[in-house]
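User: Assemble these into one structure.

Assistant: Restating your components, then the assembled model:
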Amino acid sequence: MSETTDQKISGVEIELAEVTKRYAGQKTPAVDGFSMTIPAGETIVFVGPSGCGKTTTMKMINRLIEPTSGQITIGGESALKIDPDQLRRRIGYAIQQAGLFPHLTVAQNIAVVPGLLGWDKKKVRDRVVEMLDLVGLDEEFAGRFPRQLSGGQQQRVGVARALAADPPVLLMDEPFGAVDPITRGNLQDELLRLQAELRKTIVFVTHDFDEAVKLGDRIAVLGNQSKILQYDTPEAILANPADDTVAGFVGAGASLKQLTLMRVRDVELKTDLVTVSTEDTPADVRQKLTNARKTYALVLDRRNRPLRWLHVRELASAGSLATVGRPVGDTVSVQSTLQDALEAILTEGGNAAVTGGRGEYVGTIDIRTVTDTIQQVREEHENDHENSAGGAG
Amino acid sequence: MATDTAFSTSSGSKRTERIRLLVQPAVVVIGVAATLLWAFSRDLDDIEKNNINAESLLTDTWDHLKVSFVVIVLVVVIAVPLGVVLTRSWAKIAAPFFLAIATIGQAAPAIGVLVLFFLWSGWEGLWAAALPIALYSLLPVLRNTIVGLQQVDRTLVEAARGVGMSSPTVLFRIELPLAVPLILAGLRTSLVLAVGTATLAAFVNGGGLGLLIDAGYKLNRITILVVGAVLAMGLALLVDWLGAVAERFLRPRGLR
């Protein structure tokens, strides 16, 4: 998504070429000729129905499952030529329900891979503290056992363990599948924050398309036998699904999902609204509204923060602007997604006030801005499949 | 000897278990002390004096413990590695075979196994007693080692492989520690079996408290019989208590 080149990318490229997994006694292969290039430092999400082979495909990258044929290259090195145990110590691995070892403390769990790599004790200890901090856990958790943690905390430790030896590649197998929706949302935000900082190459498996949209730089929608139905950015898949199967997987509300991908700062705000301060007199306001030919004004406080909506009718009975008008219910910040903005627009009735970093008023956004933006994205991706067959544009 | 206790990690509720931990040794100490007081305060004839004196009681108890100890070492040395091997994917197929042998060993009367082994080998003494008794009390540890390793969550094993542990490392750092509670429960049952059946060592010249029971019966001396029986029971209960204590304190701290 964001192509900022000045950030340090710690991930490496992964290339899978014609990777096939055939189990003895089964007619059809579980994974059939899977080829994909995963760019360094990006989060790729494999999404698809249960049993489509997405987990099998992922496990072939760290050779928990040995491919029957094909080539896997990680950072220019053939993964099939490295000792599997050595290979796995260089690839972070996080799974559903964290997979923490119940008889080891949090610190011992995080220290597993550094220990296997033979780091000295002091370095391991420092790293544990650093990792706990990275995933937002207090140092006091170090001595606890997994069963003493909540599901979300366990999952954080799972991520810390996966990242402990600073691997360039991270494999995540439905890591947030077993926690409640609120915790899952927090963990997803956390992962986005971590990834912005670390820029690992992450392969993330999920069956939740919304999760894929939220986390992925690119999404690979997989069908049976891990066939790649579409491999593209979330925007492109939402705007123009490659076929009916993908469209079915995207589900209803593709446009609404599109809104979660865009932020208020990316769209043009309206600034023609009349704003007044609490110190203005009703007469001043009436004059301003007449000049601008508007019936509404927004009252701002001394620090320019939105306070109340004021209709011209309400001016007649008002002595000062200190109390008159309807309080502003919902504002959106420039950081908010367009989905949040739409919610605010609907509750506020027509348009919503947008605030900047310190809560100051910067403009308004209305329903028209939102619909125009969606239209624009659709047009951009309209011709995607004519030039390339579902390739990464 | 109920085999079903061999396969549960905790018998009864936690509270009754705690009470038992305190009460059981007290009952044993009081019971043994009362029996000994009663025996020594009686008017003993020469035959009784010959058997019931501090020196021979200590020797018999010591011999009994020696047999039990050798048995339990044999059981651990044989059953735990065997259980580990029989849960590896390449040897799984042999598991029913060895379990069958162990089950037969336990199902057959201990005295039968002992006598047959004696007739077959012609040995006498400690080893002649310890080997057949070990076969007799092998099953709980073997079965619990197998079950304990099998019940380790497969996703944990895969997670361990996934972070780069080799398979021996997974066995020693993940699988065995997680199987420890069940192995200890099996060991406790085996211990009780071993101490109980060690009374039969007397028949193959292995000594032990069985000597008292045997002598008391053959010479028709109730006092000797009672002292021998009470000591054997007390020892078994004490060993069971030690097993319970071990279960409590040796299980990995992270597990409940």
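The two ends of chain A are 12 Å apart (CA to CA).
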